Amino acid sequence: MPLDPKPADIPKIPGALRLYKVSSVITGVFLLLLCVEVFLKFVLQLEIEVGGPNGIIALVARDSVTAVNLSTGILIVHGWLYVLYLFSDFQLWSLMRWSFPKFLLIALGGIIPTLSFFLEVRVAREVNAFLATHAAASSAAPAEARP
Fold first, then answer.
1. How many CB atoms within 10 Å of residue 123?
2. CA 61 from chain center: how many Å?
């Protein structure tokens, strides 16, 4: 049986939803960049070099990077953004009091390419529907209480 959010937590939900939506999109974009990087590195045997002798940004043979390795940078940045994504997922999940499998499903959005974009829309729709229902119920409650 799903639980409703605690009344004291409801004002925190819009901020948690904003953080989730932003982190979801940014993490999804970096995951797609990471997929491109993995394809370049392991299929085409290329890496992305920044500021080397071949120009500002260049594709060079794998393991021959002499300047900044953008491929490794994308990997590291995505890893840290995924930590932020998990934090925002946990925050929203705990405020909404959803089931643990739902937390795991949302967490998969940061490791399955394009899933974060679909989940972001679905989760935002669900949370906004709850907030709209709650706002309608709270605005109707004082009117009903009047004599």
1. 24
2. 32
Report which of 146, 140, 131 is spatially closest to residue 7, judged by C-alpha positions: 131
Q: Which of 10, 9, 24 is nearest to 130 (CA)?
A: 10
Domain boundaries, the chain: 9-136
Enumerate residues 6+ apart whose C-beta is below 8 A from 86: 107, 110
Which alpha helices (H) appear in the chain, and where do they start and end? 13-38, 70-96, 100-108, 115-145
pTM of the entire predicted model:
0.84
Long-range contacts of 53-60 (CB under 8 A, 24+ apart): none
Mean pLDDT of 8-23: 94
Six-digit token pair at 101? 């499998």
Q: What is the pLDDT of residues 49-78, one digit of tens each?
A: 998 888 888 889 988 888 888 988 999 999
| Residue 138 neighbours by CB distance under 10 Å | 11
Tokens of 40: 């370049």
